[in-house]
Amino acid sequence: MRFELPEQKKLVHQTVIPIRWADMDAMNHLNNGTYFRYLEICRIDWMTSLGRGPDASGEGIVIVNAFCNFYKQLEYPGDVLVKMYVSDPGRSTFESWGTMERADQPGVINAAGGATTMWVDFPNQKSKTMPDWLRQMVS
């Protein structure tokens, strides 16, 4: 099953992540789980850039589901440019999307993924209406 990124999406953040030797698997390419980690790093960097880094005693985002399509292998050494997009805001959720390309091969997408992202009250472990400042960012 393949999920595709939507045409209508908004670029909100990008970050460059160095590929580490330890990120490689026995087949000498980036381990599949690492792609999800790169998407997570970009999401966290984005929220931190907005002054809303992880805070288990407050509110923030969690991932409800996630997927990744693998198009072309990423290999050490190199840097990965991860671009994060958002779309489809709801009461407490929005869709987040990411593309991954080698920084030295701009425009060549190696992988793309997405996640349903939910705003939550961490101490109460419940979804919460997305704050206005975030709704403006994802709309």
Summarize the structure.
Helix content is 18%, strand content 40%. The chain is of the alpha+beta class. The protein has a single domain (10-138), classed as Roll (Thiol Ester Dehydrase, Chain A).
Structural commentary:
Helix content is 18%, strand content 40%. The protein is α+β, with helices and mostly antiparallel strands and 139 residues long. The chain has a single domain, classed as Hotdog Thioesterase (Thiol Ester Dehydrase, Chain A), CATH 3.10.129.10. Strands 1, 2, 3, 4, 5 and 6 form a six-stranded antiparallel sheet that branches. β5 (109-121) and β6 (126-127) form a beta hairpin.
Please write out the topology:
Layout: E1 10-18, H1 32-49, E2 59-70, E3 79-87, E4 93-102, E5 109-121, E6 126-127, H2 132-138
- The CATH class is identified as Alpha Beta
Can you write the helix and strand succession as a string? EHEEEEEH
- Find the CATH topology: Thiol Ester Dehydrase, Chain A
CATH architecture: Roll
Largest sheet, if any? Answer: 6 strands, antiparallel
Q: What number is the mean pLDDT?
A: 95
State the fourth-level CATH superfamily: Hotdog Thioesterase
- The number of strands is 6
What attributes characterize this protein structure?
six-stranded antiparallel beta sheet, Thiol Ester Dehydrase, Chain A, 6 strands, alpha+beta, single chain, 2 helices, globular, 139 residues
